[in-house]
Amino acid sequence: MFRHVKQLQYTVRVAGPNPGLANLLLEQFGGPQGELAAACRYFTQGLGDEDPGRKDLLMDIATEELSHLEIIGSLVGMLNKGVKGELAEGTEKEGDLYRSITGAGNDSHLTSLLYGGGPALTNSAGVPWTAAYIDTIGEVTADLRSNIAAEARAKILYERLINMTDDPGVKDALGFLMTREVAHQISFEKALYSIQNNFPPGKLPPIEKYATLYYDMSEGGEVRGSWNSDENFDYVTNPTPAVDGGDGTASVQLPAKQQAALDDLAKRTASDREVNPVTGTDIGAVPPIENATTASRKPKK
Question: Helix H segments across the chain?
Answer without folding.
Answer: 19-25, 27-30, 35-48, 52-79, 81-89, 94-102, 108-115, 140-162, 168-193, 208-211, 256-268, 280-283
